[in-house]
């Protein structure tokens, strides 16, 4: 094959991550609380995954999660509103039926991989779940 083919298959991401646009994603199967998951992603140079549009949603739910199980993403409620850990504005959501429920003690968001595949659920932050890390070369708008 030509060098052009080789260049197309080289990933800009570190080992274990999958490339999509300006981002690299990785599912970590070892369950952690939301806060510990965020700390682990930050130690890798990223954050729990933010999802900015429907294409990113489809990629993360279909290619990254692949039906493995519910996983933390980087959305969390602070006071009355939800924010992404990486500073991106919340321009897109994919809440499941009846979500967000705003139940006491809930406020961290996970993505479903089975029932209501790909939809989001606000849940207790101290539950242990697998998680999706994202390393991005993009920067959030001011």
From TrEMBL:
InterPro entries: C-type_lectin-like (IPR001304), C-type_lectin-like/link_sf (IPR016186), C-type_lectin/snaclec_domain (IPR050111), C-type_lectin_CS (IPR018378), CTDL_fold (IPR016187)
SUPFAM superfamilies: C-type lectin-like
Protein name: C-type lectin domain-containing protein
Pfam families: Lectin_C
Domain C-type lectin, chain residue ranges per copy: 20-134
PROSITE patterns: C_TYPE_LECTIN_1, C_TYPE_LECTIN_2
Record-linked SMART domains: CLECT (SM00034)
Signal peptide: none
Superkingdom: Eukaryota
Keyword presence, Ion transport: no
Cross-referenced CDD domains: CLECT (cd00037)
UniProt keyword terms in alphabetical order: Disulfide bond
Disulfide bond as UniProt keyword: yes
Organism field: Gadus morhua
